[in-house]
Records
---
Amino acid sequence: MMKQKFHFSCESTVDMPFEYVNKRGASVLFYSYAVDGKEYVDDMLRNENALPEFYRLIKDGKLPTTSQINKFKYLEYFDKLLQNGDVLHIAFGSGMTPSVKNALEAKEELSIKYPDRRLVIVDSTCSSSGYGLLVDDALDMWEYGYELDELEDWANSIKLNVHHQFFSTDMKMFKRSGRVSGATAMVATILGICPLMRLNKAGKIISYSRARGKEKAMNETIRTMENKAIDGISYSGKCFISHSSMYDDAIRMKNKILEKFPNIKEVKVFDIGTIIASHTGPGTIALFYYGDERIE
């Protein structure tokens, strides 16, 4: 590992454990969510009881809400980093939250206070462990000694090649958050259909197909990966899976992928964190990999 020449920063919605990100030297800005007026910080598995408690609240009929990170929180966070050097911040995708606009406003203010420092902000256009996949590879390059400009250019050139495919057996939270239409959620519930969803070029959720039942949804998701992944079934890049209280099914998907794509050495499985799960609820499985450029 080479000595880094600038700070590396991301947000808690990478949906990887904090310990994993932190031990590699990255700084993390945390989102928060609220239930019945009480605020909770996105835990990133720092407390093993936090995620089970989160799902217990949902099971009890509580509805978590999230909000964007405001400019003042970004100002405070970036200020501390800039005191000690330049910063590369890869932000949660603008298709999921307007927070990145606040980050850019904070950057403008801080450029006056720190005229000799550089604060580079990349809109990942990614979400959950797809965002984590981009950050994980960027961390590899940062540790190897890539320059700030090189990493910025790489992240912007590859971010739209990070594919996000997912489905859910429970569309209630997707409907509530406005991530899918009420009609889509109603049809899915009545007919036992899982809409197959992905992120488009803008980082927004679109439904591209549907399957009846979890098993068919899983198989169709993997078939789509065969068509979209770099080199098809010869794909050898990183592959992440995340899930919201669906661990056994996520492991089944992992095994199916390792069987279908023999050149993949490892598939990492992560929990969907509390911020994303506030909008998906339980029952979601998501698959992330590098493929052709995302479309509208």
Note: The two ends are 38 Å apart (CA to CA).
---
Amino acid sequence: MKTSLIHSDPSVMTGKPVIVRTRMTVELLLEKMAAGETVEMILESHPRLTREAVLAAFASAAECVRNP
């Protein structure tokens, strides 16, 4: 996982973890997956995202759950 792809800054999206250089939160990506969207659908809807960034977001979320 490239943790450098996920960043948290209090001045961006109220400090929620986001994919760098975007305002796409890890939370939103998880919600999209929970709603049934595939990674391919997310990438198609958000062309600035990369597969690597989406997977880094999922890994970041897993790390948060693993180490609350």
Note: The chain has three helices and two strands.
---
Amino acid sequence: MNEGEIRKYAALMKELGLTGIEIDEERGYFRLECAQPKVVMADAPVMQQPACAPQAAASYKTVTFRSPMVGVYYAQPTEDGEPFIRVGDSVRKGDVLCIVESMKLMNEIVAENDGVIEEICVENGALIEYGTALFRIKELDV
């Protein structure tokens, strides 16, 4: 496939509002993905405690958990199943937070640390990019 054909398909994607296209021609398989997804929620500013706030016995930090890959975000294991997590849920390191479907593979995304879910930043079925904010998790600041 030459550069002109690639540009033709990229222009078609833009015109139709597509985020990805797969082509299987006699010369081989070709996949083109857009770097800017249409359905991604923007990061909301994180509220910080005022400097004069009294210190608690344990201090916490809010961590933004970001997507490790490009794909489709799923909040539950099946279409009519219960979500893996909800706002306010406690999670432990290794707990499944969601599934990201990438290249026809279902990838379980797990918690990296113990914490409490403060915010879920994307909607079920959303197209996500690498680095998209998925969750805000309150972790114990050790």
Note: The radius of gyration is 19 Å.
